[in-house]
Amino acid sequence: MANTQKRKRGIIAVALLMILFGIVEIITAFTHNFVGISTTQGMLSAYTTAAVGSLYAIAGLFTLTMKKWGAALAIVFLAADVIGRIALVITGLYPLNSLENVVAIIIGTAIAIAFAIYIRLKWSFFN
Length: 127
What we know:
There is one protein chain. The chain is mostly helical and 127 residues long. It has one domain. The chain has helices at 2-31, 43-64, 68-90, 99-121; strands at 33-34, 37-38. Helix 1 packs antiparallel against helix 2, helix 2 packs antiparallel against helix 3 (68-90) and helix 3 runs antiparallel to helix 4. 25% of the residues are buried.
């Protein structure tokens, strides 16, 4: 039983990180600055980036349900987040004008993918 509780705490920690990262992404969308990395590309970029951040946060909320349907929706929302990030880059709404921006988008996208994989690997812990 203790091992099950420990694994559920891990899932909850990941869910809370997704919510936090989503909120930070939303804030960054409108402040156009994240730890010195400029994301300024105009209002369309701000709203689109905020929408992608919302997907991230909502995925975390679905994960907190600890239900299989919530985990499934979380994975779908994380996939949409990744597709949204790629679309931001392809359309030029996310600037790749510095090494920091390139590294930030790669790491951020990799983390979202890792969260989706983690949720899938922990599938049996969802009811």
